[in-house]
């Protein structure tokens, strides 16, 4: 049966997310392992070396994404920083999810764009945190003395505590929700085929779906077999 699909995540965005995922876990384990003293001194020295390697990969991947996938990066930033009335209203009942899962609050839904308000908040937090860790991390690595006591302490504390907050948010909010919304999960991790069914896009992201231009109809089974397909313009 023919099924229309919408390209939600392009390959560069999927690769950026995957690199972020791997490096973030690497950085969190090595960084918090040393900071909270979970490992021996010898292991701590090795962890710090790996912390810097993971930091280098994250830095270069972010720069590469910003340069070589400039249009994707601009689209992503425009999307997450665009807050209309419905984005704000989403917070009044958290998009109806507490009602859907726990019968708490109201079931009303406010039409969202590609990402809902919660996802936009999280994405903004991640963008700022990645920039923050790149700036504070390399400053503390290359010229801690030049920073002076006050700035070094401030950079260090921001580096540890902001990333701890984002890590906890990621582990206890982002990952469980990503697993529950399994259609989005598949679109993110099926590399090169980041599609969601058009009906799904219309239900969860109506303001995004209505802007997509149909370019072709694909047969879902055939697209799945090939691992790719084109349904609507690739505004992922
Ligand atoms: C096992 C770990 C992870 C899983 C399963 C996961 C899953 C996902 C999925 C499925 C999406 C797409 C959501 C959609 O299409 O609506 C997504 C988006 C995103 N992820 Fe992750 N992710 C993980 C780790 C991370 C990490 C470590 C970060 C950064 C600290 C991160 C940051 C983001 C951001 C900024 C977005 C776009 C906005 C959003 O959907 O909230 N993710 N992730």
UniProtKB/TrEMBL annotation:
Gene Ontology terms: cellular component: plasma membrane
Keyword Transmembrane found: yes
Annotated compartments: Cell membrane
Superkingdom classification of source: Bacteria
Entry's Gene Ontology molecular function annotations: electron transfer activity
UniProt key word Ubl conjugation: no
Residue ranges occupied by any Cytochrome b561 bacterial/Ni-hydrogenase domain in the UniProt entry: 9-189
GO terms of biological process kind: respiratory electron transport chain
Matching Pfam families: Ni_hydr_CYTB
Species in which this protein is naturally found: Brockia lithotrophica
Residues spanning the signal sequence: none
Taxonomic lineage from the root: Bacteria, Bacillati, Bacillota, Bacilli, Bacillales
Name under which the protein is recorded: Formate dehydrogenase subunit gamma
Spans through the membrane: 20-38, 50-70, 121-141, 161-182
InterPro entries reported for this sequence: Cyt_b561_bac/Ni-Hgenase (IPR011577), Di-haem_cyt_TM (IPR016174)
Keywords: Cell membrane, Membrane, Transmembrane, Transmembrane helix
Membrane topology: Multi-pass membrane protein
């Amino acid at each position: 049966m023919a099924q229309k699909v919408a390209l939600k995540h392009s390959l560069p965005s999927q690769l950026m997310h995957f690199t972020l995922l791997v490096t973030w876990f690497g950085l969190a384990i090595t960084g918090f392992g040393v900071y909270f003293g979970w490992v021996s001194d010898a292991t701590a020295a090795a962890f710090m070396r790996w912390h810097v390697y993971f930091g280098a990969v994250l830095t270069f991947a972010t720069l590469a994404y910003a340069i070589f996938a400039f249009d994707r990066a601009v689209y992503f930033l425009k999307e997450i920083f665009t807050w209309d009335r419905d984005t704000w209203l989403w917070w009044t009942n958290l998009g109806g999810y507490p009602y859907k899962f726990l019968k708490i609050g109201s079931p009303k839904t406010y039409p969202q764009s590609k990402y809902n308000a919660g996802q936009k908040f999280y994405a903004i937090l991640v963008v700022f945190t990645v920039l923050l860790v790149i700036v504070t991390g390399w400053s503390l690595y290359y010229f801690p003395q030049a920073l002076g006591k006050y700035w070094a302490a401030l950079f260090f504390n921001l580096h540890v505590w902001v990333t701890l907050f984002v890590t906890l948010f990621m582990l206890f909010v982002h990952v469980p929700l990503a697993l529950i919304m399994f259609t989005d999960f598949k679109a993110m991790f099926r590399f090169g085929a980041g599609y969601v069914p058009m009906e799904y896009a219309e239900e969860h992201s109506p303001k995004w779906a209505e802007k997509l231009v149909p370019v072709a109809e694909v047969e879902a089974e055939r697209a799945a077999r090939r691992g790719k397909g084109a349904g609507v313009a690739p505004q992922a």
